[in-house]
């Protein structure tokens, strides 16, 4: 009996340690991405912020004169959860075609790369973003 209780205690401590590490890692990485990012085309800005235990990206600005069905305030990235150091996956909404795709994001220094993929990742489109004020 004594061995069983020690084993359970060790397992419980290991589980708590893993949960703590996962939670602290998520918060740090989310803070790195939080803020406003300008798309490489200069046509839009997205604000990334924590939402419901994940990250979401909402259109914060659209360049005047840009012909697009997108609207400021529209959520275009959602349920983005950490998949590794400076990497997330979730969903990406494309206002141009009204479809939602498998989304990925990676952060490298001051550059954020987002990707939307269809057909199990066979067809993907990427955009590069830089921090904006």
Automatic annotation (TrEMBL):
- Domain DUF2147 residue range list: 35-131
Q: Which domain of life is it from?
A: Bacteria
Positions of transmembrane segments: none
- The keyword Protein biosynthesis is annotated on this UniProt entry: no
Tagged with keyword Signal: yes
Tell me where the signal peptide lies.
Answer: 1-29
Keyword terms:
Signal
> What protein does this entry describe?
DUF2147 domain-containing protein
